[in-house]
Amino acid sequence: MGWHGKILRVDLSKGTCKAEDLNQEWARNYLGQRGLATKYLCEETDPKVDPLSPDNKLIFATGPLTGSMASTGGRYSVITKGPLTNCIACSNSGGYWGAELKFAGWDMVILEGKSKKPVYLFISDDEATLMPADDLWGKSVWETEPTIKARLQDPQIRVTSIGRAGENGVLYAGIINDLHRAAGRSGVGAVMGSKNLKAIAVRGTKGDKPHDPKAFMEATVAGKKVLAENAVTGQGLPTYGTQVLMNVINEIGAMPTRNWREVQFDGAAAISGEAMHEPRKSDGKANLVTNQACFGCTIACGRISKIDEEHFTVKTKPEYWHASGGVEYEAAWALGSDTGIDDLEALTYANYLCNEDGFDPISFGATVAAAMELYEMGAITDKDTGGIELKFGSVEALTTLTELTAKGEGFGKEIGLGSKRLCEKYGHPDLSMTVKGQEFPAYDARGIQGMGLTYATSNRGACHLRSYTVASEVMGIPEKTDPLVTDGKAGLVMAFQDATAVVDSSGLCVFVTFAWSMEDIAPQIQAACEGDWSVENLLLTGERIWNLERKYNLSAGMTAKDDTLPKRLLKEAAKTGPAKGKVNDLGKMLPEYYELRGWTTEGVPTNETLDRLAL
How are beta strands 88-93 and 76-81 bridged, if at all? Predict the structure, then answer.
């Protein structure tokens, strides 16, 4: 597909929608999606802007391979300054919405200002209109999407929207498209809610062709063959989804449990990918109904699940008896082992609510886990919770808090702050398992050392999708490294970070990297776009994007002191498993990482580095 060369600028304060030319020089330097939108954000906003003020901008961006025949070419990203972290936020989603925006002829939508009343944006090819959404405000994603489709009388329209969490300012609210695909992290949905924007509906009927159609077809066909023949992308992910990791990570002693006090969960098997396939005793049916693919994807890792109709969470809610998005690994971990809960049906219910009302199950579950520890030590009481007994392992506490957080009621308002602010409020900031204010994903950095450096240096706060060293340290991709040693991990993290920045900017899903190297990706981008997209140039582009994000964060007020981990990971050794007796040795890895990056000992890119990257 390459670039259409056109962006849509929407001034919500003025109620205007205008087309303008894409800056092609920036496109050549930053490729698309994550990189290109970050460049626009950096040029057009003050890094010190209040994330929830009208002066912040919200950018929906596609990559040059979005909407193409490249496998997984259905991705889009939402870029803004995140309210959870106060640093750069880029949240990536799959499904079909991103491809539809590309079909409508747009590379990017930039939203600025704030509407006086709730609105939604309707894009139909070249036409863009702001529509009243007063009657949609207060409705969930599951109500909003079908209502808009019916109102516009087109079932093929694709919708991305916020639920009540985004409206109520939950700091980790996400943006949901296709009912259960999410731009889920860093609070991008809260920014959308602060602008009184309920949804963006898109219908595209335009076609496009890559720069070199023949070469593009050859490269994408070859890439799909590699994915099909790979054990992870051809077998493991289609069969078990990301949940293929649950038992594996637990066995190697890197499964964070009960707010990271432990590294193994005795209930992991009950909430694993294998368990999702097993028939229930109550009705003989499995939790998993089928797998599902996003646009153009040949991997199909998505989960579609159906809750046991006799489970207490849904007995009085027949609307939850239908099949919808099932738990992925990160959600199963955060809602499950981190809170000490091994009830798969309860986790599925909580995950449904996160999808329905649009909030990140990782940050939500991790915040509940922190609250449970605070409750256990007496810092939070029944008076604070409104009578909810916040005990580890309590299914009732988890499901009740999911409902309250979605509604913005009771103690759910406190959970909606995220664990950093919650733990600070109740006097124990060290119990927040976060970096830069964002909650950790599901890999303990004592058992997987490279992930500690990954979390500490991630530009959007703790994140596994910025540098998935688990691929190397656990799965042996592209080569096996020892998860318990620190040697070479600085270089490994940097390489993963730069390569992932390229993938995120291209319109592809990061899961292709389980099978593809940059040598598989470069020919596809080269055939789709004009210019030099050799492996060397792509990796330079990835490094440029990473340093641009770093510059933004430094200007926003971040310092090297923010490149750290909670004391629990640095001081409290793992109690069981292969990592028993180990803490994360960040102090050894971080100086080497700064040096490899071409940054000062204070984590600031040197003038030489900036000049080399044309920054």
Answer: antiparallel
pLDDT at 1 over 90: no
Residue 318 has pLDDT above 90, yes or no: no
> Same domain for 575 and 452?
yes
User: Phi and psi dihedrals of 110, rounded to 5?
Assistant: -110, 120
**Domains in the chain: how many in total?**
3
**Distance from C-alpha of 443 to C-alpha of 259, rounded to nearest angstrom:** 12
Q: Which of 390, 410, 432 is the last residue of a domain?
A: 432
Torsion sign across C-alpha atoms 209, 213, 217, 223: negative
| Per-position DSSP letters for 353-406, written without gaps between them | HHHHHTB-HHHHHHHHHHHHHHHHTTSS-HHHHTS----TT-HHHHHHHHHHHH
Question: CA 541, 109, 149 angle in degrees (round to 5)?
Answer: 130
Same domain, 301 and 174: no
Report the pLDDT value the prediction gives residue 317, as an integer from 0 to 100: 86
Q: What is the pLDDT of residues 583-595, one digit of tens each?
A: 999 999 999 999 9
With tokens 């919200």, the residue in question is 58
pLDDT at 319: 83
Give domain status of residue 208, yes or no: no
pLDDT above 90 as % of the chain: 98
Domain that includes residue 412, residue range: 257-432
pTM over 0.90: yes
Written as one string, the DSSP assignment of 277-338 is: HSBPTTTS-BSEEEEE--TT-SS--EEEE---TTSTTTTT-GGGSS-EEPPPHHHHIIIIIT
Q: Does residue 440 sit within a domain?
A: no
> Distance between CA 538 and CA 526 in Å, rounded?
10
Residue 321 predicted with pLDDT over 70: yes
The pLDDT of residue 316 is 85
User: Is residue 389 located within the same domain as residue 460?
Assistant: no
